[in-house]
Each structure stands twice: as C-alpha cells, then as structure tokens.
Amino acid sequence: MKMLFKQRFFSWFDSYDIYGEDGSVLYTVKGKMAWGHCLEVYNAKEEHIATLKEEVFTWMPRFRIYLGDHYVGDIKKEFTFFKPSFSLDYKGWEVTGDFFDWDYEITESGSAIAWVSKQLFNFTDTYTIEVAQPENALMCLMIVLAIDAAKCSGNNA
Fold it and tell me: What number does CATH give the domain 2-152?
C-alpha cells in the first residue's frame, strides 16, 4: 500500500492531506494550537482517529502517540553528533535510515514494515510512504509526522 503525504501550501498550523494510490484522501492531519506540536488525524469520514503530541520542556524532541484516546507509544530524537537517530517505543518497532536525505524505514525484528522517502523539488513537504501491511498505515503515518515535526522544530536532524 502506498500513501502520498502532502503538506498543505497555505495553513496557519501544520496541515496535511494523505492520499492513497488512487488519489483519494485517506487521512487529513490538522495542527492544533498548543505548546509544542499537536497534530490530530482524521479518516476520510472526518472522524478523529489519532493524535500526536509533542512533550515540551524536554532536551530533545519527544512525541506521544495516541490512537483514538489511548496512548500507544512514543518516538523521540536521540542525541548524536553526526547522524540523526530516533528511538521508537511501540511493539518493538525501529526506525532506521538516512535522515539527512529523508529516506528511512520502519522495521520490526529486521523485517520492513514501511519505507519512507521525501520527494524533492516540491513547494511543500511531500513524502511517499509504502506500507507492507495496510493495517499498519496509521501508525506509520504517526511516525512520519513525528519525525517531520522534530526536523522542523529548529532542532533539525
């Protein structure tokens, strides 16, 4: 399953549309006014299905992930000198790759769950997310949102 993640061009807060391979909108992401990033995810029926909240007053960016109203895990940027690194606390998943070039993958026990690639030469942030199993699409989207927010926070990876 492939998804196209596109930031909206004119938006006061972070807003994104996530499209399926057929061009239909799968998810809409709306930024909310808060201390730190707060992104709410809605399905195609405009139902709230997930939230990503940045913890404030942390040394490195850290995001809590909620599916519905239930906390399921977090992702945080690790302190490194040369190569950006993110740690993920969710079902043993890991995030690895080249964050400078925006190409990375989400894995579990070495098996790929998703591949993420940023498309260059667009007016707004645009990513391709290829997910091995469609049931993991929402969680993979949450991880991509967190990494994008961490990189755009001024704490660039």
Answer: 2.40.160.200
Count CB atoms within 10 A of the CB of residue 14. Answer: 20
Cα dihedral 13→49→148→57 (10° resolution): 80
The tokens 């404030």 sit on which residue? 56
Distances (CA, A) of 121 to 111, 125, 157: 30, 9, 20
Question: Domain coordinates of the chain in residue numbers?
Answer: 2-152
Cα 134 from Cα 83, distance rounded (Å) = 30
* Predicted confidence band of residue 157 (pLDDT cuts 50, 70, 90): very low
Q: Classify residue 21 by its DSSP letter.
A: T
DSSP single-letter state for residue 93: E
CA distance 73 to 86: 13
pLDDT digits (tens, 9 = 90+) for 68-102: 999 999 999 888 777 778 999 999 999 998 866 67
- What does the alpha-carbon distance between residue 48 and residue 124 come to, in Å, rounded to a whole number? 24
Q: At residue 22, does pLDDT exceed 90? A: yes
The residue to which tokens 């490195």 are assigned: 60
